[in-house]
Design goal:
By secondary structure, the protein is mainly beta. It has a single domain, classed as Immunoglobulin-like (Sandwich), CATH 2.60.40.10. It has two helices and nine strands. Strands 1, 2, 3, 6 and 7 form a five-stranded antiparallel sheet that branches. The radius of gyration is 14 Å and the shape is elongated. The relative contact order is 0.29.
C-alpha cells in the first residue's frame, strides 16, 4: 500500500483542492479507509486521512480558520477497497476564513503494519 498527496491548487472560490492517493501495490484487496465512514477521515486524530490545522506533531486540531468542505465526499471516496495494482484517488477541498492558516494533510495506510505516511503542509489564504 502506498500513500501520496498531490500539490494543493487554488480554486476560483478562494478554496484549495488536492488529491490524496492510495495505491494498492499488493496482490490482495486492501481497505485503506477502514470499514466505516467514521473511521476513514478525521480533523484531529487517528484515521487514514487527517486534515488538521497546525503542525503534524499536534495531537489536536484547533480548527483555527480551516474548513474541510468535502469531508463526507472524501470519506466516501476512500471506502471502496482498491483492487490489486489499483489506485484510489480521494479529493480534498479546503477553505480558509483568514490568511496564513497552516494545514497539515496526513495520508497513511489504515493497517498499523505499514510504517509510511505521506505528509503535506500548506498555508491557506
Amino acid at each position: 500500500m502506498e500513500a501520496t498527496v498531490s500539490a494543493a491548487h487554488p480554486e476560483a472560490d478562494d478554496g484549495y483542492s488536492l488529491t490524496a492517493i492510495y495505491g494498492n501495490g499488493t496482490d490482495t484487496t486492501q481497505h485503506p479507509g477502514g470499514e466505516e465512514r467514521v473511521e476513514a477521515v478525521s480533523g484531529i486524530g487517528d484515521a487514514p486521512l487527517v486534515i488538521r490545522s497546525g503542525e503534524r506533531t499536534m495531537d489536536y486540531d484547533p480548527g483555527a480558520g480551516r474548513n474541510w468542505t468535502n469531508q463526507d465526499e472524501s470519506a466516501d471516496a476512500l471506502l471502496p477497497p482498491p483492487a490489486e495494482d489499483e489506485e484510489r484517488p480521494v479529493p480534498v477541498r479546503l477553505r480558509s476564513d483568514r490568511k496564513g492558516v497552516p494545514v497539515t494533510v496526513e495520508v497513511r495506510p489504515a493497517d498499523p503494519g505499514y510504517r509510511d505516511a505521506a505528509y503535506c503542509r500548506l498555508t491557506l489564504g
